[in-house]
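Pilot study result, target chain (242 residues):
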Amino acid sequence: MKRLIFYILSLIVLGILVAFLYQFAINFTYTRHIQLPPQLLASTSTDMANTSNTDSVGSIHNDPFGQTNGLYLNPASSTIDTSAWSVYSNKELGFSVQYPKELVMDTNTPGVLTLSFSKDTYFHWPLLDDARITVTATSSCPVIQANNPDNKSGKLTVNGLDFTRVEGSDVGAGNLYREIAFDLKANDTCYHLDLFDHGTNGAGFYVEDQSLISKYDTQHQTDLNAVLGIFMGVVNSFRLVL
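Predicted structure:
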């Protein structure tokens, strides 16, 4: 009888240990839903190495979103069709923007408009990112940290409004975080337009075949280009409401 009880207890302990190890593996190799505040992240990894660049239109960037042409990082150059987009206007906060109807809008946080991208609509398996746009109106601009700010920040004019652009990125535990933001100071208010993306650092975490890794990574870059293009269209649609 004692031996039977010992075997049962041993099986229970073994089951708990296996469950713990499984959860540990999930947390450190497949963490896809970590919620971070919408702030640009300082990168300390050599995986996201930077090359010298300027912020003139058409300049070359080693960009967190994979862009090699500064035109795609300038909302003033956006050619996306916004004729069928919805309009969000808030006279109290003093701004309006347009956005695709497919984005999930959330205004539950005072002073913040959040537009979330559906994974199933905007991304392909296996790289299903968490991506969202936030527009905030506060008395002062947030303190932003970015990797090599001299290379990543710059000023540009969109529809007569003077914005400051900042980018940042970070990697860790198989995760990759990207962020780009545009700040506008007007009417004693800082308008902060932000695109935040959190995903897995490459398809190699899911498949071993090099041809599939290349295929999935290429598709993911296409998905990121589309998301970034929408964000540029949102920024280009930004208007002050008096």
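One observation from the pilot: The first strand starts at residue 86 and ends at 90. A full batch analysis is planned for the follow-on phase.
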